[in-house]
Amino acid sequence: MLLRVLGTAAGGGVPQWNCACPGCSGARRHPGWRRRHASLAVRAATGRWYIVNATPDIGDQIEDCPELSPGPGARQSPVAGLVLTDAELDHTLGLTRLREADGLQVVSTAPVRRALLTKLRLGDVLTPYTALEWRELGAGAEPLSAGSDVEIDAIPVSGKRPRYAADSAHDAAWVVALRLRDRATGASALYAPALADWPGSLQRAAAAADCVIVDGTFWDDEEPRRTGISERTATGMGHLPIDGPHGTAERLAGLPGRRLYTHLNNTNPLVDPAAPQHKLLAGMGIEVASDGMVIEL
Ligand code: MLT
Ligand code: MN
Ligand code: ZN
């Protein structure tokens, strides 16, 4: 199984257009600090790729990834479809940027599809440009593409709704973790860029995966309040922190496979490549994903 990390930042990106925090300012001085919105490309078959989450950067992310270059036909793209882990704007707004496609296959859970259709009205907006084909993402593993060895299924993580859909019905599948499995080799990856919770089902899937890539939005629970970006804690904002007694680092440390963080907020000290927090994670065998990273399993 072949994965390509297309971006590793939380909503806003690094740098964020209206932000002069140390991380964003640093990214304006040092191009190496820059991170695009969190996204992952998965090869379903030769020349056939799915992009997990459609970020506001998706056009540039496709352009910068050699495997996703169009051709040989004039309007032929290896991008076969999109998979969504949730309905947050940083993971869905990119759908509008793909309106030049003849058709767009979107794989998501039912509450995510409903939010995009009834709240963002993406069906009404995009139908005059392209044909949206919805595929339901659920608990039963299905081939990513017809004939693909890569299977996908979803593990419900939390009922956290996007702010624009705050009045929508409760559903355990608003936010899911994706399990990708290569049937030919047995290799598997777990991708969970938004973790408001760590249910037992996720723990079991993480323990069985060869590679887990998870929510690294905030270093510690107080970070959003300390940096002045929110009055809520990280947990209150729907992101388990990395550090601390109930942090995700402790959970990752006990897992057997490769472990990486993604979806870093610009306030996260990890945005600075020289931050001591990198050594701390490395000591636990945990990596921080970088834009462009290739993961072969
Ligand atoms: C999140 O990850 O919590 C959301 O993307 C927040 C947001 O951008 O509003
Ligand atoms: Mn986000
Ligand atoms: Zn910032």
UniProtKB/TrEMBL annotation:
UniProt xrefs under InterPro entries: Metallo-B-lactamas, PQQ_synth_PqqB, RibonucZ/Hydroxyglut_hydro
Keyword match Transferase: no
Keyword Transport: yes
Superkingdom: Bacteria
Domain Metallo-beta-lactamase positions: 48-261
SUPFAM superfamilies: Metallo-hydrolase/oxidoreductase
Keywords: PQQ biosynthesis, Transport
Chain's role: May be involved in the transport of PQQ or its precursor to the periplasm.
HAMAP family documented for this protein: PQQ_syn_PqqB
Protein name in UniProt: Coenzyme PQQ synthesis protein B
Species name: Streptomyces fildesensis
Lineage of source species: Bacteria, Bacillati, Actinomycetota, Actinomycetes, Kitasatosporales
